[in-house]
Amino acid sequence: MVRVAELAIVLCYFVLVLAIGLYFRDRRSADEYWSADGSIGTFVNSMAIFAAFASGGTFLGAIGIVYDLGVPLWWAAAVGSVVGFLVAAIFVAKPLRRLEMHTLPDIFDYLYADGRINLLAPVIILVGYFMYMVAQLRAGGLVSDYLLGIGYLPAVTAIGIVFIAYVALGGMWAITVTDFLQGILMWGLLAVIWAISFGYFDYSLSAPLSEAPRVAGTGALDIQTYIGFALIWAFAVAVLPHIAMRAFSAKSPESAKRAYAWVALMYILVTLPFVHIAGAAISIDPDLAQADYALLLVMESILPEIIAGFAAATILAAVMSSTDALLLAMAAAVSNDLYGNLVDDGASEERIVNMGTVAVVVIGLLGIVAAWNPPTYLVELYTDGTGLMAAAFFFPMILGIWWKPMNHHGAVAGMVGGGIAYAIAYFYTPMFGAIIYAVPVSLICCVVATWATEARSADRIEQLSEELGHDRFGW
Q1: DSSP one-letter string for 26-91
Q2: Are the C-beta atoms of residues 70 and 154 closer than 8 Å to each other?
Q3: Whose CA, among 168, 207, 244, 283, lies 20 to 30 Å from 390?
């Protein structure tokens, strides 16, 4: 069944974001396309980072997790995310922005200048982010099917093409403006649905736990799953390429740091309504075939039609705000990092940006095909992709910035060791448990390989101290 009012609102929103992409289509320099010329203010950047992070997976997937497995599991992820943004604000944001680069692999190239890392980092990003993107496209397909009634496959294909179009056209400028608008919409959605779900339980904070006890979810899963879910996000935020690109787009190092800190506070607030929303879904229908439909069920059951239309548009906005950033980060990995750094380091800026545009289209189309038959839980899919990047990148990044002896041999060992350990542990541990073993392996590999080889020279340490801003800390 086509929901006419909801569909009209969403189509208007699609026209708006495509118009934004067209407006910025002529801003094609590398600085503009990849990092919006480093000119985004703190408030806009905070909202854009929040929108890129609090994705369709957060709205559909997280509420689905609470509906099926209980709120403690999601609270573990929320705590980990807040810790992750604080770690990123303290240790990463300002050094990244000072370097005025475009991508995370650019930072690794600056720190280590090793061809093996220039190949490893983009490949790991492509693998991890492809899983992440498929989860977002699935969320978009679910909502589009809810609106159009045409079936999941046509819906996910249509929504994917819209994403591809405005990212390919406008780059970082387009996704910054659209993500800012999407962040505003997402806060509005939360306020409306929480208010109505809160009213559903007669404005009681504890009623969902008593009337829908499955929400409590205590003891439902292995303890490694709860710990792992928190650790993945605690380690990942500082090294997520699409979040790092937001640091590059900030107007100053201080602005980048403040934006990360503000998002930490936002993420505390964003998780508060999930108990009531999932509890309402359980009360309405405790036996959904797909838990990721829980939010849509609440919208359909208790929201007025016009409000449901705005809510559906907002969920698609949440999906877009992550998918666009993921697409741009993967395109940068292909054109800027793999091609520009390894294949043709003399390629013109125009050629690299044009290749990035083509990469957006190709990767986006591959993601649409993969999203035709994705795994059951949205959150599980994109968290595993994130966990792989956290295991491979966290210590090579943090130690590269803050530990004087750290060298390229240690970074290679840390990336390979952490990535392989995560891939192996994935098959032998409970859900999300692989990170518990993979991150220590990465740290050990970094330290042992650095100690076994020649440390950075004194001249290189002095250069890093000046360019990264460590002189104030006596580094």
Answers
A1: T--SHHHHHHGGG-B-HHHHHHHHHHHHS-HIIIIIIHHHHHHH-HHHHHHHHHHHHHHHHHHHHH
A2: no
A3: 168
Q: Where are the alpha helices (DSSP H) in 271-377?
A: 274-284, 294-302, 305-332, 349-370
Contacts of 191 (CB under 8 A, 6+ apart): none
The region, left, alpha or beta by phi > 0 then psi within -120 to 50, assigned to residue 12 is alpha
Measured CA to CA, the distance from residue 168 to residue 232 in angstroms comes to: 30
Place of tokens 């930072």: 107
- Cβ pair 114, 411 in contact under 8 A: yes
Site of tokens 């390989």: 449
Q: Which residues pair with 40 in a beta bridge?
A: 250
| Residue among 370, 371, 395, 387 at smallest CA distance from 430 | 387
Please tell me which residue, 423 or 32, carries the higher pLDDT value: 423
So what's the pLDDT on residue 207? 79
DSSP 219-255: TSS-HHHHHHHHHHHHHHGGG-HHHHHHHHHBSSHHH
Beta pairing partners, 250: 40
Distance (Å, whole) CA 103 – CA 31? 11
The reported pLDDT for the residue numbered 380 is: 67
**Neighbour-count burial of 205, counting CB atoms closer than 10 A to its CB (0-12 exposed, 13-18 middle, 19+ buried):** exposed
Cα–Cα distance for residue pair 187/195, rounded to 1 Å: 12
Which residue would you say has higher pLDDT here, 80 or 195? 80
Q: Which residues contact 197 (CB under 8 A, 6 or more apart)?
A: 273, 276, 277, 279, 280, 298, 302
Q: For the whole model, what pTM was predicted?
A: 0.80
CA-to-CA separations, 36 to 50, 110, 182, 422, in angstroms, rounded: 17, 21, 18, 34
CA-CA-CA-CA torsion sign (441, 447, 452, 457): positive
Residues 6+ away with beta carbon under 8 Å from 316: 10, 13, 56, 140, 143, 144, 159
| Residue labelled with tokens 């970094």 | 446
* C-alpha to C-alpha distances, 293 to 142, 198, 438, nearest whole angstrom: 8, 19, 33
DSSP 262-301: HHHHHHHHHTTTHHHHHHHHHHH-TT-SSGGGHHHHHHHH
Residue (of 291, 274, 225) closest to 73 by Cα position: 225
Q: Are 292 and 64 in contact (CB under 8 A)?
A: yes
More confident residue, 235 or 194: 235
For residue 111, what are its two tokens? 């720190």
| Burial of residue 123 (number of CB atoms within 10 Å: 0-12, 13-18, 19+) | middle
